[in-house]
What we know:
- This protein is 45% helix and 11% strand.
- By secondary structure, the chain is of the alpha/beta class.
- The chain has a single domain, classed as Rossmann fold (3-Layer(aba) Sandwich), CATH 3.40.50.
- Helix 5 links the parallel strand 2 and strand 3.
- The longest helix is centred in the first third of the chain and has 25 residues, at 36-60.
Amino acid sequence: MAKDKKRKDKDGKGKKGDKKKDKKAKKGGEAEKLGRKDYDKEMERLHGELVKLQQWVVAEGAKICIVFEGRDGAGKGGTIKAITERVSPRVFRVVALPAPTDREKSQMYIQRYLPFLPAAGEIVIFDRSWYNRAGVERVMGFTPEPLVKKFLQQLPKVEQAIVDSGVILIKYWLEVSMEEQTRRLTDRIDDPRKVWKLTPMDLKSYSRWYDYSRARDDMFAATDSSFAPWYVLNSNDKKRARLNLITHFLNLIPYKAPKREKIKLPDRGKKGGYREPAYPYKYIEETY
Length: 288
């Protein structure tokens, strides 16, 4: 019996192993926060896959459009940055439109978004999209209710036309809990790096949690189609959310990395009598 007990402890399957397992779980069954080292390692792998996707999109002339919507403070910007930080901005283009001009207000609502849809060899990411009409515009009273309902009724036909044109349309909704949203918005108040994220609209919207919930429910009911479904991401844990979304996105696309020839740097050209000029370059001070 004593030998068995020692063997269990040594293998990590006895009391010590159980304690380690207990530390990996929080109250309520939630997973422990993902460590920076593990996060960076997995993100590095996913960034490599995104580069392969980029090469495939260019080679095949594919057209991909990703729509990001969700609650304030749900982490849309950070997730988009995680997707795009290692790829070409000429292939992965981020679109975040400002408030519409008077001229744009007179147009068909979705009209100002259409010019930004992807051409062959492009991936376009909308940081907020035409769904503003179903969300913030509706909740904050910027658009009359009859127009919102008409918009939701007509939108699936527009998205069907987008998909029929060869665009792979992917729609993500980032969901965050009340408590986590409060924590994140409060954190922005005193952080000079994040204060710009806290807009007057965020403050007005904060008290209307359930109005946004109702608007989201109506939006899903009207536009969660077979050809352009909504995918919901739990983003209470930012690191895990980014990894989960990128993994999901990659799994949706049947990409294959094109074959590459071995790369070898060529020899540099000969100096040919070149001399550095005695020019008074204005060098930046090396403060660090």
